[in-house]
Structure formats: structure tokens, C-alpha cells
Amino acid sequence: MSTVPNGQTKASLSGRRATPLHGLTVLVTGAGRGIGRATALACADAGARVIAVSRTRSDLESLAAEAAEASEILTSWVADVTSSEFVRAIGAMEQLDVLVNNAGTNKLQLLADVDDATLDMLLSLNVRSAFQVSRAAAVRMMAIGRGGSIVHVSSQMGHVGAAKRTVYCMTKHAIEGLTKAMAIELAPNGIRVNAVAPTIVETSMTAPFLEDPAYRTFAMETIPLKQVASADDVAEAIIYLASPAARLVTGTSLRVDGGATAQ
């Protein structure tokens, strides 16, 4: 009987369409809010054992309560993804099948107004930390020997450019390059690496922008489907990339952007 990554057989997959991540351990960073929170809940609902990571304990407590109400499997880690302690914790995991490398931030500024503190903050979290966390996960997956899947949360801004987003675009273009290079290097180990690149997503981080009528008009004008994405839209794409259904998908970027980058 032919096999697929993570030790599952093709025959065994047919009965698990409703729980495509059954038996897998999924680590989700930035899980307290927004895309990370929706992804943690969706992965648990898809049958995974989820380890949700956030710096904010109260966010994780409310997430755990929400998961418990739905009988979902979720463990919380209060941690700073930029810390060496968190990287070491990944290296000690007994099982790790999927990393959703989601933690990140943005700050809208004109090029001339970008201060060094903002530059360093975005590079540290969006690029340096993303590299260190995914490197630790890949090393651990190789040691465990079960293959795995790494999904970087990128952005449509990893494929295009826009005013007031020079640093953010730079960091997300870096993630797109990292995705391709990791995919090639880790393929012999059965580890797939992909990115998901959403358009504007309605979250607590973007809410202040979307409350501005001019900004919302701008958003609608750039998205052919005329819909701002929800965190659940992105989570569903991540489920696909993490699951055996995408067993031959690696080194790609799935754009959940309503057609924005097709123009």
C-alpha cells in the first residue's frame, strides 16, 4: 500500500476528510489573536493536537476556553517567539508535524518617516524570528524523522509593493524567498514548506485601518472580489497546506487575496 508523509496511507486518508490533521501535532505562533487564533481553532477542529503560542496569557486563556467549549484539543504556551528560550523549547518537542509560522506585525509609515526602531522591530519579528523558529522546527522534524509541513504566514505584500509599507513589503518578500529555499533544501527529508499570502484581513490589528472610510475604499478598489478576508479564510488555506491533501505542494505561496495580485 502506497504511503504519504507523516506515516499515513492513501487508504487511511479516505475516512479522515473531516479531520485532515488527525494525529498531528501543530505549533501555531501568534495564536492569541487574528489569523493565529483562527488557525489554532481550525487545526484543533481538524483533529490536530495544537500548541498555541502567544506572549499574552489572557489571550491564550480565552482561546483555551473557546476551544474547550468545542471539545477541541489545544495546549497553550506563553512565550516570546523572538527569545532563545522559545527556540530551545521547539528543540525539545517530542512530536512536531506542522509549524504555522504566523507571528508578525506591521506599522504604516512613509519611507521618509521610517525610524530605526520601527525598522529593527519589523525585521526582528517578521524576518529574524521567522527564520529562527522555522529553522528550529525543521531541525526537530528531521531528528524525529516523520517529515512535516511548515507554513509561513506571508502577505500579498510579499508579491507586490505599496506606499507606506516599504519595511513590511521587504520583510514579506524575504519570507517568500525563505519559503522557496527551505522547500528545496528540506524536500529530501520529507518536509514541505509553503507560504500563505492573504490580502487585507479583518483582525484586531487591522481594525483601526478599516474603520477609516478612505482606507476601506482603497481596500475594496484593490480586491477584485470586493471582499476583505476573514481570519477563517486564511486558516482554511493553512489547513490545506498542512494536510496530506497537499502532499506534493511545496515551495509555493497560496494567495488568499481575492485576485488582488492578479491585476
What is the tally of helical segments?
A: 9
Query: Roughly how many Å is the radius of gyration?
Result: 18 Å
Beta-strand residue percentage: 5-15%
Helical content band: 40-55%
Q: What is the name of the CATH architecture?
A: 3-Layer(aba) Sandwich
Ends: how far apart?
Answer: 44 Å
Pairing-aware structural class of the strands and helices? alpha/beta
Q: What is the CATH third-level topology name?
A: Rossmann fold
pLDDT averaged over residues? 91
How many individual domains? 1
CATH class: Alpha Beta
Which spans of ≥5 residues are poorly predicted at pLDDT below 50?
1-16
C-alpha geometry? globular
Order of adjacent strands in the largest pleated sheet: 3-2-1-4-5-6-7
Protein name: SDR family oxidoreductase
GO molecular function: oxidoreductase activity
Enzyme class: oxidoreductase
Subunit structure: Homotetramer.
Outline the secondary-structure elements.
Layout: H1 10-13, E1 25-28, H2 34-45, E2 49-54, H3 57-69, E3 74-78, H4 84-91, E4 98-101, H5 116-144, E5 148-153, H6 166-186, E6 191-198, H7 207-210, H8 213-222, H9 231-242, E7 253-256
Parallel strand pairs: 1-2, 1-4, 2-3, 4-5, 5-6, 6-7
GO molecular function: oxidoreductase activity
EC number: 1.-.-.-
Family: Belongs to the short-chain dehydrogenases/reductases (SDR) family.
